[in-house]
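As a warm-up, study this chain.
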Amino acid sequence: MFFSAGNPPFSDSVSTNVAKIFLSMIGRYFPEANNLHKIFNRNTIKVSYSCMPNFSQTTWSHNKKSLQQHHNKKTPTETTFNLGQKENCPLKWHCLAKRIVYEAIVTETKTNKQKTL
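Now compare it with the structure written out below.
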């Protein structure tokens, strides 16, 4: 038989040993003279503290759900050019590309100094 004590996980602030009290009650209320001692004794009853789900099972199911959402997203085919005026494209036909780093050269009119930004 298996009985689960409905207690929170281990905590230093809890000073009562519930399993010890429960098993002592089994010995007190079902002594060897009792007819039910064959069923209810320290050898047939196991006490476990379980009120939280298994952590590895929780993380596994979360990761599985996250990966399924990621794989189910349809990736659009990337086009890098807008098919407008291909010969006048300053970005070498990559005007629709993502994550572009722009660079500019600024010339000061009075001193003709150039700065790259």
